[in-house]
Amino acid sequence: MASSLIRQFARPILATSKGLVSAVAHRNIPASLIFLHRTQATTPPQPTPNVPAPNLIRVNVEQRKALVDFGQYVSECLPRFVQHVQITSTNELEVLIHPDGVFPVMAFLKDHTNAQFSSLVDITAIDVPTRVYRFE
């Protein structure tokens, strides 16, 4: 169907030297089917200065507050192992811990009444071979 429409409109354009104008005049082609010629193409809109990019992530204040409260709670329960707690721009809680605290923190998050985590999404470690303490 589509290919036959294209052939129907392309034959008169290719057969005449007048091009697109001749095809429109003789065939009564709807204006919505006419493509812009290369010389008639519009230029892309220029970005306006001093306009910040839109924030595509919706900020849920209640969820963010709950994450902050839980992060503080974890850091109060495990002050020996938790080094830093932060919230990412995508509303994810990050708990940075000492390498010796991996198993105790995992046990706390899994077994504690207020946590009861059932799945682990991501664990990250940084290896810097030139340091005495290689893993961060």
TrEMBL record:
Q: What is this protein called?
A: NADH dehydrogenase [ubiquinone] iron-sulfur protein 3, mitochondrial
Where does the record place a coiled coil?
A: none
Q: Which domain of life is it from?
A: Eukaryota
InterPro entries recorded:
NADH_quin_OxRdtase_su_C/D-like (IPR037232)
Q: Which Gene3D superfamilies match?
A: NADH:ubiquinone oxidoreductase, 30kDa subunit (3.30.460.80)
Q: What is the lineage of its organism?
A: Eukaryota, Metazoa, Spiralia, Gnathifera, Rotifera
Which SUPFAM superfamilies does the entry link to?
Nqo5-like
